[in-house]
Amino acid sequence: MLKRLRYKLWSIRYHSASRERTAWTAARDWSLAVSLALAIVALFVSEVFVARTGTVREVRGKVYVADGGPFVAAVDDAAARHLTRDVIGLPTDAEFAVLLQRAERGWPFASADAPTRVRLDLNILNEVGTRIDAQLVPDEPRRAAITGALRRAGHDELISQWRAVESGEARPRRSWLASLGSIMVWWLMLLAAANIGIILARAGAIMIFSHHADRAAERLARGRCPTCDYDLRGLEYSDRCPECGALVD
After folding, report:
1. Is the pLDDT of residue 87 over 70?
2. Cα 226 to Cα 158, 208, 210, 249, distances in angstroms
3. I want to staple 122 with a disulfide (CB 3.0 to 4.6 A). Which of 12, 23, 131, 217 is the partner?
4. Where are the domains of the chain?
């Protein structure tokens, strides 16, 4: 127990001791703040360019032609089968699917939900092909029938979201916990990259300095100026080069 306590005290003194202030230590200190600022920027950039779209709810049904001409729709839902008794025997006009889609944005975590998109796929039986994302105004007869079927089946939230998307009132939702997690991941990656860059730059600087030092020593051994390679042999002794003024000792 005492040994562990002494080790903890030594570790605290070691890590809290003052260190020599150099350009490299200053660069590492600055990398903390700069990488954090860049991580926040990276979060918002990832929300712009990274999106994962998925369907969170899908409601299917049929549109029928009632006696006299108006359309009647019913949802294909086991919980709403008792609501479809009034369409038994009516001819089918179309099949529909209402899909509530959500675009999750951000990396590595979904930090924001883009405005929800409600897509209506309509397969009218007397037409060739299915209308994907059919754009029907709210008072269009088939659209009104589909809206009524959704309301009778209890999908009021889906109807309100549909109207909000069409009116532009839908707003993205932000998850602050996911945003904080994404910032931390970006911060750690950028900080690691910055430290690797600093280590490589320092190693490169040491190699360049060693090369210049070796070249200067080799020039001085041959009686030449270590800076400009001026020939100093046969000249009156001086501690400075007569050509460039650099110290030769």
Report:
1. no
2. 81, 15, 14, 9
3. 131
4. 49-174
